[in-house]
Amino acid sequence: MSDVTRRRFVTGGALALAWALPAPRRASAQSASAGPANAQLIEDLVAANRILVDQGVVDGYGHVSARHDRDPNRFLMSRSLAPELVTAADIMEYDLDGEPVNSRGRTSYLERFIHSEIYRARPEIRAVVHNHSPSVIPFGATGVPLRPLYHMSAFLADGVPVWDIRAAAGDTDMLVRTPALGRALAQALGTRAVVLMRGHGAAVVGTGLPQAVFRSVYTEVNARLQAQAMALGGTVTYLSAEEARRAEASIGGTLGRPWELWKRKALSR
Amino acid sequence: MSDVTRRRFVTGGALALAWALPAPRRASAQSASAGPANAQLIEDLVAANRILVDQGVVDGYGHVSARHDRDPNRFLMSRSLAPELVTAADIMEYDLDGEPVNSRGRTSYLERFIHSEIYRARPEIRAVVHNHSPSVIPFGATGVPLRPLYHMSAFLADGVPVWDIRAAAGDTDMLVRTPALGRALAQALGTRAVVLMRGHGAAVVGTGLPQAVFRSVYTEVNARLQAQAMALGGTVTYLSAEEARRAEASIGGTLGRPWELWKRKALSR
Amino acid sequence: MSDVTRRRFVTGGALALAWALPAPRRASAQSASAGPANAQLIEDLVAANRILVDQGVVDGYGHVSARHDRDPNRFLMSRSLAPELVTAADIMEYDLDGEPVNSRGRTSYLERFIHSEIYRARPEIRAVVHNHSPSVIPFGATGVPLRPLYHMSAFLADGVPVWDIRAAAGDTDMLVRTPALGRALAQALGTRAVVLMRGHGAAVVGTGLPQAVFRSVYTEVNARLQAQAMALGGTVTYLSAEEARRAEASIGGTLGRPWELWKRKALSR
Amino acid sequence: MSDVTRRRFVTGGALALAWALPAPRRASAQSASAGPANAQLIEDLVAANRILVDQGVVDGYGHVSARHDRDPNRFLMSRSLAPELVTAADIMEYDLDGEPVNSRGRTSYLERFIHSEIYRARPEIRAVVHNHSPSVIPFGATGVPLRPLYHMSAFLADGVPVWDIRAAAGDTDMLVRTPALGRALAQALGTRAVVLMRGHGAAVVGTGLPQAVFRSVYTEVNARLQAQAMALGGTVTYLSAEEARRAEASIGGTLGRPWELWKRKALSR
C-alpha cells in the first residue's frame, strides 16, 4: 500500500474498521511475571521519563515504556504518575493485553493500550513513547504532513500518518482506553517511527529507549522548524528518500552522544 | 440564548447594559469573618499562586482566589502582591461585595470584584483565576474564537466569550474596579469555564483550585498551539462538541496528576 | 506637530537635520562631581541592570542609567560591561555632555550620548534604558507601528516613533556615538516613552528606574503579542487613546508590585 | 564572482564539482604533534563548547574548534562528545587532513573535515563552529536569504550562501565525512563568515573563539528576528552594505563584553 493510500485509509471514515477486528485471545486470569527486569533497563526507563520532561516533549501527562528484557510478552511502565516524578519504585510490569501483572493497588495509565498493542504488532520495537508534544499537535489537527527538514529527523521520511480516533470509533473521549483502540492506532502506525493522533498527541517507537526518546525529541524540533520554514514563504526542500535513508543509518550510530548527556542531567537531580 | 447570540451580546455596544443592573444589597458595615480557613486550602492557594507563575500564566500581575471552606459567602485571596511572593500570611478574607473582612491596613487588589461577582453568580465555583496569560491576549484583542485543539483543553468547547469592558462602561482604565463591572464580566462568563477580557486578559473558574489552575494552564497552551495550527494554513479540526464533553469528563478524573507535580515543585522552593 | 507628521519627519531623509542643530555649550574641562549618590539609587540601578537581563530585554549588550539625585546635570551608569555583571563598584558619574566626571581609566559605553541627550531634553525623566529588545527589533526594521494591545502597555499610546540614523547622518556604524546623534534621537523621542532605532534597538525613558524598567519589559511583551495578534488574521483592537490615558494612570500606581518582585530576585543571586 | 553568481554556483547542480578537485597531498603516516597548546586557549575552547549550549546554538550535537597556537597546520577539538560535557581532557589535536595526531582510542567527530578544510582554505581563521542552530535551519531549507537585520549581525552582510551537499555529491547521508566534502563546503563559504548547509545546519568562522561564538549566537538571533520581521508584512529594511561594514568594525571592538559574561557563566558550573 502506498503512503498516500495508507494516509487516506488511516484518516478516512467508513473503511477504517481496525477497531472491529477480532481481538487476540485475552487471558482470563492474571498473567505471570517475567521476573525482575534488568536494573540498567529500569534506570534507563526512569531517565527516559525525566529526559522527555527536560526536552519539553511531555509535561504532567505522557508516558514511556520499555519491553521487558526477559520476556517479549511483557513491558515495563510507571504507574499513573507525572513523568517528572517517576522513580524505579513506580515501574510496573504489564502483559500485552495492557493488564498489570501485579498492580498491588497501583493505578495504571488509562492509555496503556497504546503500548501493549504496539508491542504486539511490532516485535522489533523495544520502547514506546506517548506524548502531547506541543509543536506536533498543530500538525495532527490540520493534517499538514510532517516531513524531515534536516538529517536529525530523517526517521520521519517514511511518512507520519495522522490517526483520527473518530474513524475508528466515532465520538470518544479521545483516549486509547481499550485494546481495540490500541490496535487501530498500531495499524495506523504500521512500520513507521511516529504516528500522530488527531486532537491528542503522538506515539513514537524505537528499538530501544535511546532511539524512542531521540525520535520524540527531534519530532518536536522538526515540527517547530518545519512550521517556521513554511512561514518563510519559499519552497521548503525536505530530505530526499535516499538522503533520509542514509542519514538515519548514520545518525543511528551516534545516539549515544545525546543520550549520555541527557541521562547524566536527568539522573543528577 | 445560543452561543452566537451570546457572543454578540457580550461584545456588542449599546445593548450591553449589565453594568447598569441594580446591585445586590451591600452591607454598610464590615462583614463578619467566617473563621480560620482549612490549612490545606490555604496551602493550596499559596501553591496555586506559584504554579501559575511557574507555568507562565501570570507574571508580576494576576491573582487567584478560593471560596472559603466554612462559608460560601466568603473567599480567600492574597493582599495586593506579585503572585510569586505570596505566602500564607498574605491571604486575606473577602465577602461577596469584594470587601476585605479585616484588612488590617493591607492593600487589596483593585480587581477583586472579578472574584466576588463570579462567586456570587456561580455557586458551584470554588476557585477563580485572573491573568494576563500571554498567548491568550491576541485572541481577546482580535475576537478570533479560541477553540479546543486537543483533549487537554476540552473545557473550552462551550465557547470562550470575549468581554469588552467598553460595551459595559465606555472608556475606562480597563480595570474591573467596581462590583458593577465584576457583574458585567460574570454575566459574560455565564456558565462557561473561561472569559477573555479585551485588551486585558482572562478570568478562569473551577470547582476547585486544581481545576482552575489546570484550566488556566491549558487555555494558555491551547491559545499558543491554535495560533500555530492556524498559521500552518490547512483546515484546523477542533474537538467536536461530543468529543469535548466526553474528554472533559475523562480528563477531569486525572487532574491530580499534574497538580501533585506542580504543587510539589512550587512548594519546594 | 501631529503624530503622523512627526513620524514622517523622524524617519524621513532630507528633512531630518536634527543632528545639524547647534550643540549646547560644552565644558572644555572635566566637570565636577555632584558627590556620592544616594545608596538606594545605586542599589536600584544595579538591580535594574539585572532585571533587564532576567526579563530578556538586554543580553550582553544594552545599558540603563539614572539621573543623579543630587544634581540634575549628572547621571549614573555602569562602565562598559555586560549588564548582568554590573555591581555598585562599576557605576560611574557622567555629565550631560556624556563625559565621565572621573573615569579613573574605566571604559565608557560608546553610546552614552543616548542617555545624556535625553536627560538634557527631558527634565522630568530620571531613568533611561537602551536595549536590543528582541521582539522590538522587527518593528524597528519594518516600520510597522507598535501599538498598545493591552492595558499593561498603555504607555505606548502616544505613538512609538522609529528613528532612522541614516536620516540624521547617512551611512554610519549605527551607533549613537556623538552628542549630535544623541540629540537627533532625543528629538525623535520627543515627549514619548519609547523610541525605536531602525536596525538597532530602542530607547525607553521613565520618571524613575521602576518605570523605565517596567516600560522596557512591557514594550517587549507588547511587541511579541502584537505580532501574534496580527498573525491571527482578524482585526486587532488596540486601546483607545482615552483607555490608554486612564489605564496608564492606574497601572502607574501599581509599579511597585512587579518592581518588588523583580528586585528581590535580581539581588538574591 | 558576484554574490548572486556565487550563490547560484554553490547551490547549483552540474557545475559544482568542488568535491572533485584534486586533494592536497595527504600524509601517509600520522602527523607529529605541535606540542601542548596554550592553557588559556584550551580553557577558551572548553568555555566555547558550553557557551554555545547556553545560548541555544548547539544541543547534544555540534562542535567547535580552534587553530593550534603553536602550529597553523594543527587544530584542537573535543573527541566525539556532546558539547555540554566537554572538558580540557577531551580536547584532541588534529592535522589539516582532519586526522587526529594521537587518538589514543578516542572517537572523533565524523564531520571534522568541516574544520580541517576551512583551516586549510582560510589562513586568517582561528576558530570554527559547526551547529544545527534551530532558527537557521529553515533558511537553509528554503533558500530565503539570511540578511543583517541589525548591527549585531552586520557580519552577515557579505551574503550567507547555502551549500547543498547534493550539488557536490548527489544523495548522501548529509554528513561532511570526507576531506573532499569539507573542501566543497569551504569553497562555498569562500571569504564569508557563515555558510548554511541545506537540510543540516551551518558552519561559522572567526579570527578567534570569541568571534566565532559571537557570530554563531547572533546568526541564530538574526534568523529568528528576520523571520518575525518578514511575518509582520511590511518591507524589511536591512543594514546597507556600508552600514554593515562600519558596524562590524565597531562591534568587533566590543566582543570582549559578552565573551567575558558568557565565559564566566559557562565555567562557573
Task: Give the tags.
homotetramer, 269 residues, alpha+beta, 7-stranded mixed β-sheet, 9 helices, disordered N terminus
Structural class of the secondary structure composition of chain A? alpha+beta
**Approximately how much beta-strand content do the residues of chain A carry?**
5-15%
The helical percent of chain A reads 25-40%
First-last Cα distance of chain A: 47 Å
Our count of helices of chain A gives: 9
Number of strands of chain A: 7
Give me the Rg of chain A, rounded.
18 Å
Largest sheet of chain A: 7 strands, mixed
What order do the helices and strands of chain A follow?
Answer: HHEEEHEHEHHEEHHH
Mean pLDDT of chain A: 91
Biggest interface between chains: A-D, 36 and 34 residues
Residue runs with pLDDT of under 50 for 5 or more positions of chain A = 1-27
Quaternary class:
homotetramer
For the largest beta sheet of chain A, what order do the strands appear in spatially?
3-2-1-4-7-6-5
Global outline of chain A: globular
